[in-house]
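Need a sequence for this fold. Nothing fancy.
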């Protein structure tokens, strides 16, 4: 684990706002030279604190107006391995997030769909037929107030 100082945190905040910013611009914003900013960014990447750069897509503008969080309880944990379930559920394109959790359910899934009929199709034909699926609870997302992890 590497030590993170306030300058590193400032660089990370700026990169979260603009992942394609140049090291010279970032350096100017946080009070470093271009080369010093570049070295710090490389150190953060090598330490896996920065794990790639991604483009954030707007699901609604792409036609996916429904987001549902599912709690999935596996029926028979002994007969179906967790890896088999994870591999099968991860292959479903509408499933955006798979989390193995403690509590009432074994997994939490984030599923996107074009509308409720589309979600029902995904649920009945794709998710409920997965190996080991027992109980499923759905929570439809009404609004999203905060989305990103910012330091």
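Here you go.
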């Amino acid at each position: 684990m590497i030590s993170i100082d306030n300058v590193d945190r400032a660089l990370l905040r700026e990169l979260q706002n603009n992942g394609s910013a140049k090291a010279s611009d970032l350096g100017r914003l946080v009070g470093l030279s271009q080369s010093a900013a570049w070295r710090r960014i490389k150190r953060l990447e090598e330490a896996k604190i920065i794990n790639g750069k991604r483009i954030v897509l707007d699901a609604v503008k792409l036609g996916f107006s429904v987001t549902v969080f599912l709690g999935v309880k596996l029926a028979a944990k002994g007969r179906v391995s967790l890896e088999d379930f994870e591999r099968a559920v991860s292959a479903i394109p509408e499933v955006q997030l798979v989390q193995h959790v403690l509590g009432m359910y074994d997994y939490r899934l984030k599923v996107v769909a074009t509308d409720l009929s589309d979600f029902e199709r995904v649920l009945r034909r794709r998710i409920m037929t997965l190996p080991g699926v027992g109980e499923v609870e759905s929570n439809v997302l009404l609004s999203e107030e905060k989305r990103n992890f910012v330091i």
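For context: Residues 66-140 form a domain with the Alpha-Beta Plaits fold (CATH 3.30.70.920).
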